[in-house]
Structures
1.
Amino acid sequence: MATVEKPLAAARYVPPHPPRGEGPVPVWRGLIGERARTAVYGWSERAFETWHMERNVLGIRVHIPLHPDAVQHVLLDNAANYVKPDMVKKILAPTIGRGLLSSDGADWREQRRIVAARFAPAAVDTLFPAFVGAARGTAAHWGRGGTIDMAEQATATTMRVISDSLFAGDARLTSKAAIDHIAAAIDGVAEARVQVLLGLPLFPMTPKGRRGRRGQIYLRKTLAAVVEDRRRGGYDDFLSRMIEALDAQFPPEEARALAVDNAATFYLAGHETTANALAWALFLLSEQPDLQQAAAAEAREALATGEGDPGLPGRLPLLRRILDETLRLYPSAPRIDRQAVAADRLGEHDVRPGDIVSLWPWLIHRHRLLWEDPDAFDADRWTEARSAGRHRFQYLPFGGGPRVCVGMRMAVSEALTVLSHWLTAWRFAPVPGREVRASGLVTLRPAGGLPLRVTPRD
Ligand code: HEM
């Protein structure tokens, strides 16, 4: 159902961002300290107003194009020339192997074809009850409210959704152990990244690295067991159908490995990113009570019109603008890397075979020449009138081109459904004196969780 857009006159709010120096940051700063742990830390002012940067990272040439035309060239126009970098594959291999996210060429195409139907609009609509069930299930534990870590709650919710919608509600994927091991595996990436950059073997050296390795092993073992159960029969879920399709398409050994790789890929890519989007949206709303009130009123009306109707997200235009703006300011994936296969040109810049091309939603989404008042939260920049004339590739929370996030529709629908249920019944306020910072290398999370004061709405 089409809903009339009502722009909201809101006070200007600028969420805090990492400090920005004047000049370029030395490359070594990416190997130790906060910048090695947090992708969005340590950028200079210049990075938000130039069109192209180039670095030499330990002998590897890295291009950082910031002009949307160049982004479009890499992700769409000449996408075949830009593959997932060997380095990224090496870092991700122990966790997600060569599944959809980390493969290229014919292997990628075949896997994408196999899963695409599950994420078409009509198929995503069938997941709606899973979104509602998870949103309600999580909130059922909030009692009379209090200070609650909403990053943790968001993760528990999206994990439940992914388990219910793709893995027949397998309880092994939503256990406390699973949550802890995944968090450790993600944290361990920082150490693996430095080792791969230095050409060292992947060997956990610090307690964090060791916890990360244990997390990866737990994850792979659990998913291998989940896959084996499907092979024995008696299931009819996304995973069992994917296993059948892989068996029909790939040699037996490869099909076996790809089944676990993709189970891990969908389990991780399908919940962590959405959980971060939910957490950042709640943070931004907690800081803007009037906007939160307006979103809650919209949600209440939309739910009253048809709570069990998968058309619900379409009746939440304000919340949709809030989500779009959340993903602009806090893109769950702050960087998207590619490696050039053959020589090419990006605008005036030569690209050599093997060069890395790093696309940075974090920088492009806050670029001064692309956005008005880029660091400020402004949901109304997403009204139709103000979106007119905007370049398609200046906003890429879900990537773009043939490798655009396959779960995009699901993520948006899920996030809007969960937020509308929570906002209708609860009010979220900041914990006084607590600063919220972004952290993370692969995905952008609130550092140390997101405790908020949660109280029932009357
Ligand atoms: C707010 C939530 C989400 C965000 C911000 C997000 C972001 C992204 C981005 C930026 C990419 C492109 C990476 C690249 O080009 O290198 C991507 C790819 C992918 N996403 Fe998502 N994602 C989200 C939710 C989901 C969900 C719910 C699923 C599945 C259930 C999913 C599964 C995948 C997969 C499998 C790929 C790889 C696609 C391919 O290479 O063909 N994502 N996602």
2.
Amino acid sequence: MSTEPEKVMNKASVIEVAGLTKEFGRTVALHDVALRVEPGEIVVLLGLSGSGKSTLLRQLVGLETTTSGSVRVLGEEVSSLGGRRLRALRSRIGFVFQQFELVPSLTVLENVLTGALAELHGPRLGLWAYPKRLKLAALGHLDRVGLLDRAYQRADTLSGGQQQRVAIARALMQNPQILLADEPVASLDPESSDQVMSLIREIAMEAGLTVVCSLHQVDLALSWADRIVGLRHGEVVLDTSVEGLSKAQVMEVYGRVATSTSELEAITVELAESAQQQTVVS
Ligand SMILES: Nc1ncnc2c1ncn2[C@@H]1O[C@H](COP(=O)(O)OP(=O)(O)OP(=O)(O)O)[C@@H](O)[C@H]1O
């Protein structure tokens, strides 16, 4: 082994959450959550629908107020930030969503360029309105995600997997230190899901990005993450490296204990189907 883990340990945590509780009226979405994420870690959040994954991700970028507790990201206490300082923090964090959130009528290149709007302090209309250096950077990111040849096509003419790759290129325009992804492959078929997740992992490793990503697919999480954090009813019930972690142990996050391989497979299929239904509904 190299000295890499030692180097990581010496740096400050990128994300430090302590005693975080978030209530929506009577619903306790997160309860006393603690989480530390070190630079360059790739963490997957797993848990049933409603377990608090999206709420936790949203808290990391101050999209919702906290009820109590502390959320420190890149050394900043998120709840104490407002206006310009919150925007500055968010500009260092890329966010990828389940539904891609592209502007369908714009070209792929323009969609990627919108990732630089924070730097430009305002909206731009048309490609000509962006500086050449940003256009070159956007084309470079499109090349990285394998879509350079689609740069001048409308975004809505691409497949789901391609659109998510555009969304990743858009996030890269921010030169982020952290990438948050909220079920980035929930709308994709298994092959595209594998491609998108592999791409995120490769890019994260190249750029030393820290990644926190919610997923519904246990197999994908086990093959893709460094570490899995399991949430149940808003509480962290598992937080461990994937090394040596079995699928049966992960299933306990879902309150399911499998006593045989066939039972494990049946539970996996059931969870995948229930996640799929949630996706169709949402
Ligand atoms: N804006 C809101 N107003 C009221 N309740 C909310 C709000 N956002 C989330 N909740 C509730 O908080 C709980 C956690 O929701 P959250 O979306 O974080 O779960 P999740 O694990 O991301 O679910 P999914 O996998 O379906 O996306 C749920 O009970 C949900 O109904």
